[in-house]
Amino acid sequence: MNEGKVSENVLKHSILHQIHTKCDEVLNGAGIGEDCAVFALSDNEVLASCAREAAVAVQADMDPAGAPRDTVTMAHLIQKCVNNLAAGGARPIAAIITLLLPGETEPETVRKLMAEAEGACAALSMQIAGGQTRVTRAVTVPYAVVTGYGKAPREGRPSLRKVKPGQDIVLSKWIGLEGTSVLARHRKAELLARYPAYLAEDAGAFDKYLSVIPEAATAMGSGVCAMHDASEGGIFGALWEFAQGAGVGLTIDLKKIPLRQETVEICECCGINPYELLSGGCLIMAAEDGKALVQALNAEGIAASVIGRTTDKKDRVICNEEEVRYMERPKTDEIYKICEG
């Protein structure tokens, strides 16, 4: 299998089709395009949960020139987990952290990783509620699994089940932010040889846009029907997952998908398709009145755009002026084209 997310066919046939047991307490379980599992907590509230994993390193030890391209900080990994909760309309409350460590790991490294995790959780008003730390030969670098928990109202919660044909599709901020940041750090020498230094520096700091909590909170009070956190597979992969999970078609205007100029320049230099590049920090939303939702987001200082509509067909169509093409199933993220080291 290719590196990164497993393909939709593997996910569907080898994973989801093996899950048969159902419980009344599970209101929303595993599925394509689902950011969170949702459990009945009371008549008024639900408990949402999601998990994210990655190789991790201490912030001070992150060497963009030598670190594997998919190594992240604990703060970054926790934020990605919390983004999934936010897309499910949930307020984060707790995290369980599992650390898998190679034998040569120093205790000081573990202390620093957990200190960074505590700092990130404290900033999000989350408690680290437990986990496990294990030394194992199965990993060659520290590896973390973060399971996040959040609370959400039982009524009015956004869900893919609420998506209907004829709704507007809204995107927050810009696509490719997360991937652009990774490319800027790993290909800095190439970029400095071609562009002004400020371009690479600004792009390398795009991690500051990673949180989707502000737009999710605004959307919850502005008529949103469903939300999906764009991440691995880029915006094309995220739109496919969104439509597949909701059971609708899409008509998307390519020209309306928002891109930062830094992303355009860096992707061109690196031979990367920005529409299939890590897009953490970008939230997909469906609403009956997309223009009103965009206005509400803009009023909070959040960039947003209506990029298309849902349809009653199964086709997912990308329109680029007169050119029309059909969206393909999600591919391996473009970030994996970067050579190790």
Can you put this structure into words, describing what you see?
Helices cover 31% and strands 26% of the residues. With 341 residues, it is an alpha+beta fold. It folds into 2 domains: 8-153, 60s Ribosomal Protein L30, Chain: A; 160-337, Phosphoribosyl-aminoimidazole Synthetase, Chain A, domain 2. The strands form 2 sheets. Strands 8-10-7-11-9-12-13 form a 7-stranded mixed sheet, sandwiched between helices. It has a 6-stranded mixed sheet with strand order 1-2-3-6-4-5, with helices on one face. A hairpin with an 8-residue loop joins strand 1 (26-28) and strand 2. Helix 2 packs parallel to helix 3 and helix 4 packs across helix 6. The model has no long low-confidence stretch (mean pLDDT 90).
For this entry, give a set of tags.
single chain, 341 residues, alpha+beta, Phosphoribosyl-aminoimidazole Synthetase, Chain A, domain 2, 2 domains, 10 helices
Helix content: 25-40%
**The CATH topology of the largest domain:** Phosphoribosyl-aminoimidazole Synthetase, Chain A, domain 2
Total number of beta strands:
13
CATH class of the largest domain: Alpha Beta
Order of adjacent strands in the largest pleated sheet: 8-10-7-11-9-12-13
* Global mean pLDDT: 90
Architecture of the largest domain, according to CATH?
Answer: Alpha-Beta Complex
Structural class: alpha+beta
The tally of domains stands at 2
Looking at CATH, the homologous superfamily of the largest domain is: PurM-like C-terminal domain
Low-confidence stretches: none
Gap from first CA to last CA: 22 Å
Which overall shape is indicated by the principal axes computed on the Cα atoms?
Answer: globular
SSE string: HEEEHEHEEEHHHHEHEHEHEEE
- Please count the helical segments: 10
Question: Could you give a short account of the major beta sheet?
Answer: 7 strands, mixed
Give the percentage of residues in beta strands.
25-35%
Question: Over the alpha carbons, how many angstroms does the gyration radius reach?
Answer: 20 Å
